[in-house]
Amino acid sequence: MGRCSVATRAVNAEQAEEWNGAWGRDFIEQRERHERMLGRLWARLLAAAAIQDGEYVLGIGCGCGATTILAARASGSGHVLGADFSRIQVAEARRLGAAAGVASARFEIADAQVHPFGAGVFDVVISSFGVMYFDDLAAAFGNLRIALRRGGRLAFSCWRSRADNPAFTTGFAAAAAVLGLREMPGPGAAFSLASTDRTGALLTGAGFGDIEFVKADEPMLIGCDVDEVLEYQRTSPTTTEVLTGLSPAQAGDLTRLVRDRLAAYASPDGVTMPGAAWLVTAQAV
Q1: CA-closest candidate to residue 149, choices 178, 120, 109
Q2: Which residues of the chain have pLDDT under 50?
Q3: HSE-up (13 A, CA, CB side) for residue 250
Q4: 68: number of Cβ within 10 Å
Q5: DSSP H or E stretch at residue 203
Q6: Is residue 126 classed as helix, strand or coil in its secondary structure?
Q7: How far is the first Cα of the chain from the last one, in angstroms, to the nearest whole number?
Q8: Full-model pTM
Q9: Domains of the chain as residue ranges with CATH
Q10: Fewer Cβ within 10 Å of end Cβ, the chain: N or C?
Q11: Half-sphere exposure of residue 166, counting CA atoms within 13 Å on the CB side?
């Protein structure tokens, strides 16, 4: 993988700050939960990518490295580069990759929107919910197209609408809006690629063809019971922000509402919510 130069410049400064701060730390702490939640969707992504032995693979927004490690196993004698602009998550990915004994995978701190990966270096680019956060989506997909050889494959998962994903609507922020304690949160960057028309136009403009969108709907086990999930949500950076400045009575009302909402998804097997994603594949032309 010596053909790839290393750069740590990040133009997406606001996102970089978040993912090197509270959000990055939270994802590291909750890594095993997220692996459990997203495991079925990861399997769908890897199947769509159809990685072959000997291929060079680029993982965008690799986080703590789980999908990169899976891709490395699929590529066999090939090589896999996991890229993320979160220094702390890349450090965790390196630790986990070494522990897994996957020598063909390496991880770099890089903002994939501008990082010079090299022209035509990779056979496949994959991303599990990592491509939605670019400031300039057109420039980002253009940069990924440059990194792919002609005929190379792009496969990524992104969330469909916020309404289709109760994991984003049952928490403290949405409940606070219901109680009139704050405005309803907007869709945010997590849903920037929910529109197939918009995403298709972005990919076409970046030099991709054979673009396909497949609905990927899989159950996500959020936690073992309502109390455990409630505590998980209560300690998130978003909830910390929501609770700041509330009176004890307001915080109590808010917590009860969130508990009631979570109870609708509880069963003896745990708290399970539907996960609704697009599985997007395309080819570099």
Answers
A1: 120
A2: 1-8
A3: 15
A4: 28
A5: helix 196-206
A6: strand
A7: 23
A8: 0.91
A9: 13-161+189-221+277-284 (3.40.50.150)
A10: C
A11: 17
